[in-house]
Specification:
single chain, alpha/beta, Rossmann fold, about 40% helix, Glycosyl transferase, Glycosyltransf_2, glycosyltransferase activity, transferase, Glyco_trans_2-like
């Protein structure tokens, strides 16, 4: 079972940051993940908790949250609170980093390795970072960013990190200049990582974040949400007032924040002094800031309210699971008359205590802190509001307003009901679920039979029609399949179109993933890995067969495509199902020579696919989930091109070879049909004619057929061009589709239909020769498709005349005869022909054989 790793830069066991983490983590736990949380004691230096062991912090959190730390972090040489404080003061505050830079880099590298080791040990699949942008500890931040890049690349995780900021520089005591002035030149700017999705609490936060870091591509708004359930006195909390010495009918003001100077609890004490008979309950850790707690208790005595103030210690969070030990914030609100939030003007970002009071059906009073109007005021919430820009302490008019609210039960009820209704509209639960569904995963439905994976790269023009065709599949209920769109770094509206489609078609599950490594193979693998992992949590349907289905964003699937593919797979025992691919003849009207070359290839393929099952093509195939996992999924190989490593194009064929080589069968589903986009031919026709459609010299290249205008589509080939195109097409086709299947599965040569196609004599000699070549070969290339190309090419040259004779007899006389031999083989003595074929096909440095056979699929 994989895990979620949470990191809080707050370094406190309970705060708004931790509360929001728990809300998000609860959703991951529902997906079956273990949840770990690092409270950040070893990050912030000003909380007096560096390296301090956890004590009873776990009691404040749900039992399913396991507190975690980075193992051995205390043994990193030089990593101390003093160093962290010095970096904050000298590097961030004064940009004097000459003394500390090398030390910082050394420690960051050690931290990076320890973070990665911790994630590996805990099988981490997702990470949530809370408040990590504040430059309290830029050594740790640097290490964390580097760890994310390395771990994400190593495990091909996509955007596996949710990075949420509650207090950006502009909203965390900016008047002190602690972190510098905008644009904060000495503070690390958020990294535009392919593994991170940033989250801001509201649109204003998002706007100001992008003003600071305009390069960020992935940043969403996720407001804090609250469980709307009116707080009530019940059997579990009935003794709350008595336990804390608060008279049953006395007005009670609830204050539940950390006891630190920026929270300005002193304002509540001054307010209490002006409200005879009222009580104040302060929930917070009295030991977090002993000096501030001492100051407040002395002030309470000075104001004569010490007997009406209860410093009740930490309470469990507002959204804590019921039944836990001790009282919670919700229990306090059940007994409170009003809730108070008289905080500093430039300290708060969201003001969770207000939201929690609203959701509990309790009136509140507040200071007009900087973002109060952004979050609450402009939405119409009603409350006494203290203008702290004009006055520091409660004014007589503010006191009068609060006193009236405390004594007027009808007005309190009216205000609470008004705010409660508004709160349900603006802060109801579910927003986090929708964002996480979009960013990570939705549980797969128990009835889901197929997950259609669609890699996309700048497909805005064609994508609406492709998605519509997938939506309108016949014969299958939409609860029986889903679509997984994998964006491969699109720069157009591809992702926006997909998300809009998903919103407009809620009856079909549509997921949007991102794959940062460029290449359709990488995107296809990401989508299939995603679907495979999720399918194991289908509940009652977890054991039923699931098909991982590949589709292509520039092709069109027929209305019965998915139904016929699934039906064929259900009726047979094959691990892979291969679709029928066709071109629409009308798209080649007026080009009879070109169409003749295309149609002859398609006729040959129909025969061999029916005999041998064919091989998967990314345009449309299905694989059994169990088989996919067992053979290790789609494997990405690399090749050198122009001095750089690039993805190998033929991942679909490589995968088919892996599956067939493992002993599994491949099935041809002729009624499951995919129309190939004619622009593939139109754009690359010159390369098709010369046999360079997808590269040369052994290098297979993915061409982007959308980049340029393919030119006129009504010009036919000349007779010479048509002959060349056909020869390269049939040379590419024959080794891959008539020889490779029996090379991989020699037992096919014992099948009656295959014997009838080849003829008994040829089938027997092919089988004998395959065994000889396999025994002879000792060196196998690192790419499966290449390791089978060489013997396939050799067998082609040795048996071409006979195989073409069988194609003429089976497919039609117009198939003709084998194309001319390479010039170097024409003068080879017949008795040494097989010997020199071997040298020719194994000469990989020159790539001659690959060039002769066209090096990639055409038509």
């Amino acid at each position: 079972m994989s895990a979620l790793w949470g990191i809080s830069f707050d370094a406190t066991p309970i705060s708004g940051v931790i509360v929001e983490f728990v809300k998000v983590a609860r959703l991951f736990r529902a997906q079956g993940l273990r949840v770990h949380l690092d409270l950040g004691y070893d990050i912030k230096a000003d909380k007096n908790a560096f390296f301090r062991p956890y004590r009873n912090e776990a009691e404040l959190l749900p039992e399913w949250v396991e507190l975690g730390r980075i193992d051995g972090i205390e043994h990193i040489d030089g990593y101390t609170p003093a160093l962290v404080s010095a970096v904050l003061a000298e590097v961030i505050g004064r940009n004097d980093d000459t003394r500390l830079r090398s030390v910082m880099n050394t420690i960051a590298a050690e931290l990076q390795s320890r973070i990665i080791a911790q994630w590996e040990n805990n099988d981490v699949s997702f990470v949530v970072v809370e408040n990590g942008t504040l430059p309290e500890n830029v050594i740790y931040t640097t290490a964390l960013y580097r760890a994310i890049e390395e771990y994400g690349s190593r495990h091909r995780l996509g955007r596996f990190v949710l990075w949420r900021d509650h207090d950006l520089m502009w909203q965390s005591e900016p008047s002190t200049g602690r972190y510098g002035r905008f644009p904060y030149p000495h503070t690390p700017v958020p990294v535009n990582s392919p593994f991170i999705h940033y989250v801001a609490l509201h649109e204003e936060a998002r706007r100001r974040t992008l003003e600071w870091a305009p390069h960020l591509r992935e940043i969403s708004v996720l407001p804090n949400t609250f469980r709307h359930r009116r707080a009530e006195v019940d059997q579990g909390n009935a003794a709350f007032r008595a336990d804390h010495g608060i008279p049953e009918h006395a007005p009670l003001i609830a204050r539940y924040t950390r006891i630190v100077p920026p929270k300005r609890i002193d304002r509540d004490l001054h307010l209490l002094a002006a409200l005879p008979g009222a009580y104040l309950f302060v929930a917070g850790d009295r030991a977090e800031d002993p000096a501030e707690f001492a100051r407040l208790t002395a002030l309470a005595a000075e104001l004569g309210v010490a007997d009406r103030v209860v410093f009740g210690g930490r309470l469990r969070p507002y959204d804590a699971d019921p039944g836990g030990s001790g009282y919670s914030v919700r229990d306090l609100l059940a007994h409170a008359t009003v809730a108070s939030f008289l905080t500093s003007y430039d300290y708060e970002s969201y003001g969770n205590p207000i939201g929690e009071a609203i959701a509990a059906g309790v009136p509140y009073l507040t200071s007009e802190y900087e973002l109060y109007d952004t979050i609450y005021g402009t939405k119409g919430f009603r409350a006494p509001v203290l203008d702290v820009r004009a006055t520091d302490l409660p004014t007589p008019s503010f006191v009068d307003e609060v006193a009236e609210l405390l004594t007027d039960e009808t007005e309190r009820a009216r205000m609470a009901e008004h705010n409660y209704a508004l709160g349900q509209r603006h802060f109801r639960e579910g927003q986090a679920e929708r964002l996480l569904d979009r960013l990570f995963f939705t549980p797969m439905g128990g009835r889901t039979k197929a997950s259609v994976v669609l890699p996309v790269y700048n497909e805005a023009a064609d994508l609406p029609a492709v998605l519509d065709s997938l939506y309108r599949q016949r014969g299958m209920d939409r609860a029986e399949y889903e679509i997984v769109v994998v964006d491969n770094n699109s720069t157009d509206d591809t992702v926006a179109i997909t998300r809009r489609f998903a919103e407009e078609h809620p009856d079909l599950a549509v997921h949007v993933l991102s794959e940062p490594e460029q290449g359709v193979a990488c995107a296809r693998r990401t989508g299939m890995d995603f679907a495979s992992a999720r399918s194991k949590g289908r509940g009652s349907g977890a054991d039923q067969r699931l098909l991982l289905v590949s589709a292509d964003a520039d092709c069109r699937v027929d209305p019965d495509w998915l139904f016929e593919l699934c039906r064929a797979m259900e009726s047979g025992k094959a691990a892979i199902g291969v679709c029928d691919y066709y071109y629409a003849a009308e798209r080649f009207a007026g080009r009879p020579r070109l169409w003749d070359a295309i149609s002859r290839t398609l006729r040959c393929r129909a025969v061999t696919f029916a005999l041998f099952g064919g091989f998967p093509d990314g345009k449309g195939f299905a694989v059994d989930r169990g088989t996919y996992d067992r053979v290790g999924g789609i494997e990405i190989f690399y090749q050198l091109r122009d001095g750089r490593f690039v993805n190998h194009l033929s991942d679909d064929w490589d995968f088919g070879i892996k599956v067939r080589g493992s002993g599994e069968e491949i099935l041809y589903a002729p009624k499951s049909r995919v129309e190939i986009n004619a622009r593939r031919v139109d754009h690359a026709i010159d390369e098709v004619i010369t046999g360079r459609a997808y590269g040369s010299d052994g290098i297979i290249v993915m061409r982007d057929i959308r980049i340029a205008d393919p030119g006129p589509a009504d010009e036919d080939l000349t007779e010479e061009e048509a002959r060349q195109a056909w020869e390269f097409s049939i040379k590419d086709f024959t080794p891959k589709n008539t020889i490779l299947p029996v090379l991989l599965t020699p037992s096919l040569l014992e099948d009656d239909a295959v014997i009838e196609f080849f003829g008994a004599d040829l089938a027997e000699r092919l089988g004998r020769r395959i065994a000889e070549i396999k025994d002879e070969m000792r060196v196998v290339d690192f790419t499966p498709i290449h390791s089978y190309k060489t013997p396939s090419f050799r067998l082609y040259f040795e048996f071409a005349e006979e195989i073409f004779a069988r194609l003429r007899a089976t497919v039609g006389a117009d198939i003709g005869y084998p194309p001319p031999l390479p010039p170097c083989l024409r003068d080879v003595p017949p008795d040494r022909f097989a010997e020199f074929v071997k040298y020719y096909c194994e000469d990989r440095e020159s790539g001659e054989a690959h060039n002769y056979f066209g090096n990639g699929g055409v038509f």
